Amino acid sequence: MKHRLVLPVAVATTAGLLLTSCSGGGSESDDNISGLQYPAPSEEPEGEEPEVSEGDTDVAADARDGDMVRPGIDVPDDLEKVFEPVDTDDPDELAVLADQEQYIWAVDEAITSGSVDRPALGFYATGEGLIASLDFVSRFHDEGYSISGRTKYYNRSVTLREEGVATAAYCADFRDAFMVEVESGDRFPEDDEQFLYASRLERTEGGVWQIVSLSVESGGSECR
Question: Acidic residues composition bias: which ranges (predicted)?
Fold first, then answer.
């Protein structure tokens, strides 16, 4: 059975530091981070199932925030994502979560397209975060694998730090996802292990929350 490749620790910020800074799930400061309006992340009314996002050729069509154009993201139809809602109505926290979702889609676009040159990945990640992401994607390409199926993102949290800085974490459940051998098309189901991801994001002058560092570890008690 093939297992999902995970982000290399060598180029990621240590999990302990990020997870400590991500705990709490809310803003540490009453100061709002100024910025542009963002599309809200996936949300559902309390008590209802999160909406399933299915891959298609228009996950994030080129869109404008003021004078800024965000790159479109194209993924296969057999990719599905479920983003559980976060209990916040803070516009800055929602902006962080929305751009984090787009980063996740951008990584999957790079994996499934077979190209690390897709514009969205470098749009939503920079610095060590981009290096780690490119290395992660390249390992799929080098080993001849892509991905398909459904992934659930849950136990999500976001914390606003100093102005223009945030930390965020989530658990990922890949039990309904598959590694796909590109040459043969054979699909290999993931195992039951779930992972805990943590990241630091910084807001650009244009208002985009970019991943600047990230880490992943086995979910353990955090992801039960």
Answer: 43-59
